[in-house]
Design a protein that fits this description.
With about 375 residues, this protein is of the alpha/beta class. The protein is about 35% helix and about 20% strand. The protein has a seven-stranded mixed sheet with strand order 5-4-3-6-7-10-9, with helices on both faces. The structure holds thymidine-5'-phosphate (TMP).
């Protein structure tokens, strides 16, 4: 499991096959198995990044949402440590509520005065949310949650429970078109049970209380979609963006096959590149213990003898070990303390910000290895 960073002597969550299946009819790609959410999320180490990139993303979301609806009351599903709800509250939302299955993160959010229910998004949680908002909520947010969910039908029906006629649902998911174009194979891991196209998402809405109202493409995390939904009994018309986005979409089995070939090539390239550096006596480390780092490290079979450590800003991940390789995760200061010659940036989705931030590393002759979109030394 890609986020299964354990402490010294800790027990791993286990293994499961990682295989992508594709439906040529509706263009949905899904994993062949769904791991029990209790195993994946009960104690969860992924904390929404407090980075500048993420704050800018939140501001963009708020602007787009504001064009549709005033966000007085906001419910967030998969609210993590409450970062987005805090942002919404600072920017005018007077009533907020988060729902998150991770005990540790719900506690963290509640301590910070972000009302949070520790639960998966099921019927009970939906009823609790309805009771919290009493007359129906204005906005429901679900960032990078839908692609983690196995039972879409219940998820969508439960969204109707705390809704009113003009509730706006905003679902953010990684976009499969960007995944294919950028060969982002490192975003394929057990938490992401599906890789959504707009066409497949529209098919999933059939028979649900929701329809697509507006679609926006976003840059975050290597390319994502903002899917805005309105209830089927909402009177306003769907926006042109839905038709345009559907027209520009092209997801085929052929493209997935090309993706697979390219992914193998990239894995071979990074693996050989790092091994050559190490053989010639250069020190290489990892930067950002993202889930993506676990995918790369296991695909390349890197061990501590290739990457001595991985730095990460997330306190919860530090002094734990990367799953599969047991490479230690250390604080971000280790980069300038130890000054290795090379650092592989596994948090490539934040690279411009990281490049600026880690000036000392650069000035002392440190070089970045970027694994994405193509392997490059900066
Ligand atoms: P993500 O791409 O899945 O959001 O993961 C990014 C990881 O990188 C996360 O564990 C936090 C870490 N990170 C750093 O270590 N330094 C940074 O400056 C940023 C932005 C992220």
């Amino acid at each position: 499991m890609a986020n299964d960073f354990v402490e010294k002597g800790g027990t791993h969550k286990g293994f499961a096959p990682l295989k992508v299946l594709f439906c040529p009819r509706c263009t949905l790609a899904q994993l062949s198995v769904a791991v029990d959410p209790q195993v994946l999320y009960r104690d969860y180490l992924y904390v929404t990044s407090p980075s500048r990139t993420m704050q800018e993303h939140f501001a963009k979301l708020r602007k787009l949402i504001g064009e549709e609806q005033s966000a007085t009351s906001v419910l967030e599903i998969g609210s993590n440590d409450g970062a987005l709800l805090r942002f919404m509250e600072k920017n005018g939302a007077s009533r907020i509520l988060g729902i998150d299955p991770a005990r540790n993160l719900s506690n963290l959010a509640s301590k910070e005065h972000i009302p949070t229910i520790n639960a998966v998004w099921d019927r009970d949680a939906a009823e609790d949310a309805a009771a919290h908002f009493e007359t129906g909520v204005d906005i429901i947010l679900a960032r990078h949650v839908f692609c983690h969910v196995d039972n879409w039908k219940d998820f969508l029906h439960n969204l109707a429970v705390p809704s009113k006629k003009d509730t706006l649902v905003c679902i953010e998911v990684p976009y499969v078109q960007d995944l294919l174009e950028g060969c982002e194979f490192d975003t394929i891991y057990h938490e992401h049970t599906s890789y959504l196209s707009i066409q497949s998402f529209r098919a999933a809405l059939n028979g649900s209380p929701w329809r697509l109202h507006r679609v926006e493409r976003l840059e975050i995390h290597g390319g994502a979609l903002l899917l805005m939904l309105r209830r089927t009994d909402y009177e306003g018309k769907a926006q042109e963006s839905v038709r345009k986005a559907l027209e520009s979409e092209s997801i085929t089995l052929e493209r997935w096959r090309e993706f697979a070939v390219k992914a193998h090539r990239k894995i071979g390239e990074l693996s050989a590149f790092v091994r050559n550096l190490v053989t010639s006596g250069q020190e290489v480390v990892g930067y950002g213990a993202s889930a993506k780092s676990t995918v790369w490290i296991n695909a390349c079979s890197f061990t501590r003898s290739q990457l001595r450590f991985i730095t990460d800003t997330t306190l919860l991940k530090q002094y734990r070990f990367s799953p599969g390789s047991d490479i230690p995760i250390v604080d971000e200061g280790a980069l300038t303390r130890e000054l290795p010659k090379y650092a592989v940036c596994f948090a490539w989705n934040f690279f411009p910000e990281i490049y600026e931030k880690e000036k000392i590393f650069r000035e002392k002759g440190g070089k970045w290895i970027l694994p994405h979109p193509e392997i490059k030394v900066v």
